[in-house]
Design a protein that fits this description.
It is built from four helices and two strands; from the N terminus they run αααββα. The longest helix has 32 residues, at 106-137. It starts with 9 loop residues before the first helix and ends with a helix. The chain has helices spanning 10-17, 23-31, 33-51, 106-137, and strands spanning 53-68, 88-103. Strands 1-2 form a two-stranded antiparallel sheet. The protein is α+β, with helices and mostly antiparallel strands and 141 residues long. The chain is elongated and about 80 Å long. The chain is 48% helix and 23% strand. The protein has two domains: 1-52 and 105-141, no CATH class; 59-70 and 82-103, no CATH class. Helix 2 runs antiparallel to helix 4 (106-137) and helix 3 (33-51) runs antiparallel to helix 4. Residues 1-18 form the signal peptide. It comes from Phaeovulum vinaykumarii. Keywords: Signal.
Length: 141
């Protein structure tokens, strides 16, 4: 990741966003949400370019044996409940998330990064104005 691309304004902003409790902080968090999303996408794209591949997440459904309770028995003819059966092994399904490497088109990834950088700059200008408005609307005491 090239640090020169990172705006000097974003680092102090991240420190302010860490607490996210006061009305001013919530306002700033809301005003910079899209900027943070685009910055994260740009960072991911730059990491893909540096690695030469991207990561793709996928889900796998598997089965495993687990202890489970036996179904309840019906009442006896005299109306009393028989003792419960001991636990037994049951086959239960579960879902895992895994990652795999996928090929990237470096030219397309470079265009995507460049577009994200342009969008990030546009959002930074808007965020500066919005943060200033948040500070004026909700001054810290």
């Amino acid at each position: 990741m090239r640090l020169g691309m990172r705006p000097a304004f974003a680092l102090p902003l991240l420190a302010v966003l860490a607490a996210c409790g006061t009305p001013q902080e919530r306002c700033i968090n809301s005003a910079t949400r899209e900027l943070r999303a685009v910055s994260a996408l740009r960072a991911e794209t730059e990491a893909n370019l540096a690695r030469g591949y991207a990561w793709e997440e996928y889900t796998i459904t598997r089965s495993r044996w687990e202890w489970c309770a036996a179904p309840p028995l019906p009442p006896k003819p005299d109306g009393t409940q028989p003792p419960p059966l001991p636990p037994r092994m049951c086959l239960e399904e579960y879902t895992d998330t895994a990652r795999r490497r996928v090929a990237i088109d470096p030219a397309a990834e470079t265009r995507k990064r460049d577009n994200l950088i342009a969008r990030e700059r546009q959002l930074e200008r808007q965020a500066r104005a919005d943060v200033a408005a948040c500070k004026a609307r909700f001054p810290e005491e």
